Amino acid sequence: MGAVAGGEVAGTTGRGLPLEALRLVLSDASTGEPLGADAISVEAHVSNVGWQAAVGNGGTAGTTGQSRAVEALRVRLSGELSARYTVWYRVHSAEFGWLGWACDGADAGSAGYGRAVQAVQVAVLPKGDPAPGDTACPFKSRSDEPASITVRSHTSNIGWMSPVGGGSVAGTTGRGLPMEALEAQLGWYGHSGSIELRGHVSNVGWQQWSEGHCGTTGKSQRLEAVQIRLTGEAAEKYDIWYCAHVSGIGWLDWACNGAAAGSAGKGKAIEAVKVILVEKGGAAPGSSSKVFIGDLDAVAVSGSAVSGESLGLSSGQKATIGGKGAKLLNSIALSVAGQTDDGSISYAVMDAYSGWGASESDGGAAKAVSGAPIKAIKMSLSGQFASNYDIWYRVYDSGNGWTGWTSNGQACGVSGGSSGLCGIDVALVRKGQPAPGSTGNAFTETSGIGLVSQAHVASAGWLAPVGNGETAGQTGMSRSLQALYISTQGIDASVEVSAHVANIGWQPYVSGASYAGTVGKGLAIQAVKLRLTGNDSSKYNIYYRIHAADYGWLGWAKNDAAAGTVGLSKQAEAIQIKLVAKGSSDAPVQDYAALIQLPGLSAKANCSGLGWQASVGNGGVAGTVGQNRAMEAMQLSLSDSSMNGGISYSAHVSNIGWQSAVSDGATAGTIGQGQQIQAVKINLTGDVSNYFDVWYRVHVSNYGWLGWTKNGSPAGTTKLGIPVQALQVKIVPKGASAPGSTSDSYFETYRYMGYQTPGSYPKVSCNSVQLPSYCTGYFTYVTPSRIPYNASRQDCINAFVQRAREYIGTRYIEPWSSWPGDAVDCSGLVLQCLYATGMDMGWYNPYNHRWLPEQTYNSMNWYRNNTFMPVSTSAMQRGDVVYYQGHIGIYIGNGRIIDSWPGIGVTERSVNAPGRVIGAARPFA
Length: 925
Hints:
This protein is mainly beta.
């Protein structure tokens, strides 16, 4: 805009146009020439920028092209001019109008309101002349205004209500609507500070302090009490007072500066509040005698046992969990119920393996390492809570009973030994009041040298710790040892443990707060190695032994030697560990094996036409299968054994018989003589035989693999000339099951392995039937079996029919069953023909047939009893038997039978010749 002379209005009024920049030019009155740049300085306070740097004579104060309004000015003359003149200036501000005149660098305008300067007047007057006009209030600063507050309520069935100012009612009264949340905002321009709130919410309790709000929304949880406080400059300048309207009670009195207003533990909701600021030290807005209804401050304590079970929750001015006979504690948690003062409760626990753990507070769980019992505790209060109370506590130690009381962060418990805490007493005591009981022996540090071990056992979890030389784990219950802690006491040394675990093997060494083994995986420890480390490790030996499944207590190992079992799938069930000073007479006697380890086995076969084959290990096949090559020699040996002993073996060789036993890699059998091994015997020797069985089987010509046998019993055949072709040997823990079937591991007569009748019908065999010992005299003839060991069904039918043909012409005598050419009746003939297939008919034999009246008509016995598989008479096949009334014949096909008939003896004839056929059966189904 155009320039105006001194004292005139630059800018506009009444048009709402912000002044954005100003240029002042101070000139020599006699010449009209501008004075120097430093003759005058101008500072502008610009919206969203603040005070700018000063500009000189003719400079531009403010901004152009940025739509930023000037809100205030400062104008100064240079030192020489200021001695003779006063520069006066005033501004016209939006909504304020013309403010008073300011001079010589004083503020003119406003700050904090966002009010733009619209016009300005500037006048330079001789020093001492009066001001051009009113000097009252040249500058308005929002920071000079008092603080204010706004409050709004979130009310059930309504939601957020409109904010109200200080002293007004936020919420509702007379409508029975609970308040659920509360917001409060502080307004104080240019000053620091805020409002913090803390709510007591139904089903939640006291919340944490939060700036500007408390309570919940969307959860239908009532706000029952509030605490409100100021921070920063506001807390120095003002007190904040507030009161609550409580359901069923009405308005309570005024609370101040963080005190609780409302109720707790009564199930009553705040329905409305009033909040007001009062300058520091000012009078309360009303009565302050009854501001809060609630229970006394109380401490709550809970705990979990080593086993994971809860020891319960207790709360009150005094709270107790556990005690004599209770389970050992692994974790504790404490909190303060109904707490209205600011502050917290913190606590820590100590265990034997990791020492003192990190501090927890306000309901967090302070835990010993997994599975370990707590040895000692300490607790402390903080904040306003600590100003009002002492926290006293004592513990019940499983080995010493109740300790004395201690307080405020002091240790309580027993630092050494194998005991642990199983009870806690806690009490809130007002400052200055005496302890709840005796304070003697609150914390005991056990003296002397010791060792503590603790076992985790299947189905039982972590057991109680035990002392030096005692049993950790369980015996006689078939429960595996799964994890183990070990710690020392009174010496500068620790124990490192490596465990051999099922399905894992040897684990890395661990110590202190890390356990050896596993938890929660169901994996048994099988063996351990223990060693000492540290400055005192050279002064002591550590001895240990394992109780292993099926073996019991093994021998003692020491100083990093392995103890237990390896490779046997035998679980350790317990361990004893003993720390002994070197040279002491307390050292256990190392009298037998501490480690039982499955020995390595090497088996080697010399085969006809091939010579020595590569050795095989435990359970491997030595020799050949499917090549028809006989084994002629063998060598067996053990390796990696944890105890003394070896392996001995002998061979039954063709044309020689049983050889003398040899052992540990020597050759059994013959080399280069063409003699075949036919059977073997194998034994373990020495201590190895006390802990292991040796199972073995052979693969023989014609039969293949025979059954397994063990510990010196023969495997193979003798008297039959059948060569061994391959050998399997397997060493297993004593008493373990056979690796497979044990049937027919050795025989001296042929074993039948061909076709067999189904189900429970009489069986065929290549071996001849042997009659019971009571069968003596003339009527004991048995047709020898004539089927091969690998007979087919057709072989059996052929032998059956062929034997019948051999009886043709033999006379009929009842009730005989004799040899061809002597005499047979009808069932006696069938019986002898069945014997030709090795079929043992048991009670039906020639002797009983002759002498027992009930066997005179075996044909009908067999028919009625379905001794053989019944078939339709229309579907008869060669080798079936045909039943008639009181008679039996052998069907040979094409409608023909062979039978023995009175008066004509054994003949071949038509199936219909004996009369009507009443049934048929198939002995070889």
